[in-house]
Prior knowledge:
Elements: E1 8-14, H1 21-32, E2 39-45, H2 52-62, E3 66-70, H3 77-87, E4 92-95, H4 107-110, E5 122-126, H5 134-151, E6 163-166, H6 183-189, E7 194-198, H7 217-233
Parallel strand pairs: 1-2, 1-4, 2-3, 5-7
Antiparallel strand pairs: 4-6, 5-6
Helix pairs in contact: 5-7
Amino acid sequence: xxxxxxxxxxxxxxxxxxxxxxxxxxxVSTALAPVGRPFEVVLVDDGSTDDTPRLLAEGMRQYxxxxxxxMARNGxxxxxxxxxxxxxxxxxxxxxxxDLQNDPEEIPRLxxxxxxxxxxxxxTGWRKDRQDTNFRRWQSRQANRIRNWISQDTINDSAxxxxxxxxxxxxxxxxxxxxxxxxxxxxxxxxxxxxxxxxKHSARFAGTAKYGFSNRALRAFIDLxxxxxxKERYLRYEAAEMRRPD
Length: 246
């Protein structure tokens, strides 16, 4: 890791992705070079049990911008994201998945959108043309409809991992299991501006999905009720200390 403070921190949760890691690091290196400003990649190894840790150690020797956080045990995407956000040093934080269904080449295109139309605090990707099975696309459409109905949100693809944030929109945000599916709602809840834009989506590079229908449906619905409650109960106030009279 270099001592220079990065402008951009790319946070990537990773769990048993030995087939994808070498290509992921190569593509990230090529994709972020055009940014023209210092960057770091915080790759969070979420308790991998395959060859991922060794491949990441090799990557750290090759890429000075790569930082690796090793979770003591598999904690899930939300825990990995929270650990990565806490470690990130950049003024801007971007996120993608490690399976290369999110194209890292999209990040330089999304960064200027933070300054568009008066400025945004979060740019969230919409996988408008998803390269998934018919069932998975149907499942995601239904999940987003239910999510927006209950949470009173308008985001088409809340669970997409391809996102860009100003760091202040994330710092201090305490997450919970499953919260990675609700980041736009959680950021809006704090009073920040969010823009959704279509992004590329690719077929899985290798391996299989680690988080499927069986471990998402019921838990996601319960989490959704919690998010709705949080939005209605969230404290919104302004306070300023008065100047001492002369």
